[in-house]
Amino acid sequence: MKPQVLVMAASPSAAVMAQFDRHFDCHHVWQLPAAERAACIAKVAPDVRALATTGTIGVDAALAAQLPRLEIVAVNGIGVDAVDFDVLRPRGIAVTNTPGVLTDDVADLAVALLLAAARRIPALDTYVREGQWAKGVALQPARAVRGKVAGIYGFGRIGKAVAARLAAFGMALRYWQPNVVAGTDVPRSASLLALAEESDYLVVCAPGGAATRGLVDETVLAALGAEGTLVNVARGTIVDEPALIAALADGRLGAAALDVFAGEPAVPAALAALPNVVLTPHVGSLTVETRHAMGQLVVDNLLAHFAGQPLLTPVR
């Protein structure tokens, strides 16, 4: 008998979804209208041995309590801040995620957002589409990135990949995170506040969760300054969103380029209305190649677990 798996979200890879149904007895909650999902979970919960979820959906105490036979939570994503480890750990439930395979695409998007904000790409696109060019409307100059300082908050796989890319643009680099990173020539600032003070661009690549919630606050944004730019490809909760909106509206922060938001998919109307922001809908890993690789890693972790083999990417 195939292991029963509760699947909370679909992979865009048809090959991955075919493997789910080939190897497991799947309950695809994502296929149901929102109003019917709770009843479906309650019906199948006694026999579910694995949960396939995402970094955004995660698993909370209430869902875990419904699944008495749960053995493994396989997260399709790198972030696990939505996973309630305090509930899972005492039950010996394994957790996996998908690190590494999405590093390059997320780093690429971080650089794209930084460049879009610096060179005002969305505004220039509108300028052309609305005929302002043909009318001779005056243009506001953009800013070069060469010679500027990019401060990277969170210097793990993605932070390092962002740094390597930005170095090629002639930018100076700094980083900060609580622990010192060995084997890098990039200087570490004394604190997050110091990093913001020393940077023209602050790129957030840190993990989400309680430890980082709201750390990019009014003080940090003020230190980044009226000519500074915030880029966030990590978690929206890391940034104090009301403080960000106020700083952008008042000109105390120059610009922001954001792929993540505190209450996503809802984006504050006041933020969306600002002309000095670039917004994307949490798509750092959304390429055909990476989403397949992420989904494949989820499947491979589940197969390893049920075969009694070591997990490929366990979260310790």
Automatic annotation (TrEMBL):
GO terms for molecular function: glyoxylate reductase (NADPH) activity; hydroxypyruvate reductase [NAD(P)H] activity; NAD binding. Residues 111-284 form the D-isomer specific 2-hydroxyacid dehydrogenase NAD-binding domain. The keyword NADP applies. Residues 17-315 form the D-isomer specific 2-hydroxyacid dehydrogenase catalytic domain. Gene3D superfamilies: NAD(P)-binding Rossmann-like Domain (3.40.50.720). The keyword NAD applies. GO terms for cellular component: cytosol. InterPro entries: D-isomer_2-hydroxyacid_DH, D-isomer_2_OHA_DH_cat_dom, D-isomer_DH_NAD-bd, NAD(P)-bd_dom_sf. Keywords: NAD, NADP, Oxidoreductase. Belongs to the D-isomer specific 2-hydroxyacid dehydrogenase family. This is D-3-phosphoglycerate dehydrogenase. It comes from Pseudoduganella lurida.
